[in-house]
Amino acid sequence: MALGAISLVAFDVNGTLSDMSAMTDRFAELNAPPEMAELWFAQVLRDGFALTAAGSKERFSVLAEDGLRRVLGDVELNRPIDHAVRYALDGFSSLGVHPDVVEGVRALRAGGLRLVTLTNGSVEVAERLLTTAGIRAEFEMLLSVDDADAWKPARSAYAYAAKQSGVPLGQTLLVAVHPWDIDGAARAGMVTAWVNRAGAEYPSYFVRPTITAASLVTLAAELRGLGT
Predict the structure, then answer these.
(1) Mean pLDDT across 173-183
(2) Preceding amide of 34 cis, omega within 30
(3) I need a labelling partner for 52 at 20 to 30 A (CA). Which of 27, 61, 160, 225 fits?
């Protein structure tokens, strides 16, 4: 389809808008290996995907807390496990946005595009993140798979966003840093934009993104150049 037909941009939140690097500091402050933060997040996603594949579903917050108890259970922490779990979860809920997000979001909105979120996490976390960054007003809706039939990358999660926004999947751009999200959205019929801030290689086994951009700012500029 022509990129000029895009009228809605749906953003993934965790990692795409939020800068999760601060979680490594939280784990270090608990006397846990900093790299364990990435392992924990990957396990939360894995279990969410597994439940979706089995025809079930659980809230991100439930999987996140349970996962923390398991990954921190064998670590010699500097505080009781209940306190450690709460400290880590509080850090996740109070992350900031990536440096390019505020300018990029405002540029996309100024280009006449409607903006929404579509997260596997909670609306509350997205609300806090965007409000703190001063860009909540740029988004007309904050959508979560909590209210859909399944987690992303199931097709029904993307279909939920289309239904709520009244925009066909083929006229919606899914923006994410996660290749699995790009792949799922593409298979559902969406236009996709992979935000590749780290200069990584895209996995060969996933459907390739329609657009690859180094930041939301460059994405907005590219869409302007293409007449979107």
Answers:
(1) 98
(2) no
(3) 27
Q: Which two tokens stand for residue 20?
A: 């999760």
| Extended strands (E) in 157-226 | 172-176, 191-195, 211-213
Question: For domain 22-93, is the CATH number 1.10.1060?
Answer: no
Distance CA 185, CA 206 (A): 11
Give the C-alpha separation, 147 to 59, whole Å: 10
Domain ranges of the chain: 3-19+96-225, 22-93
Question: Hey, CA dihedral for 209, 212, 214, 215, is it positive or negative?
Answer: negative
Looking at residue 1, its pLDDT comes to: 43
SS (HEC) of 115-165: EEEEECCCHHHHHHHHHHHCCHHHCCEEEEHHHCCCCCCCHHHHHHHHHHH
pLDDT, tens digit, for every residue of 33-58?
Answer: 999 999 999 999 999 999 999 999 99
CATH number of 3-19+96-225: 3.40.50.1000
- Lookup result for tokens 């969410």: 48
Q: CA-CA distance, 47 to 72, in Å (whole number)? A: 17
Supply the pTM of this predicted model. Answer: 0.95
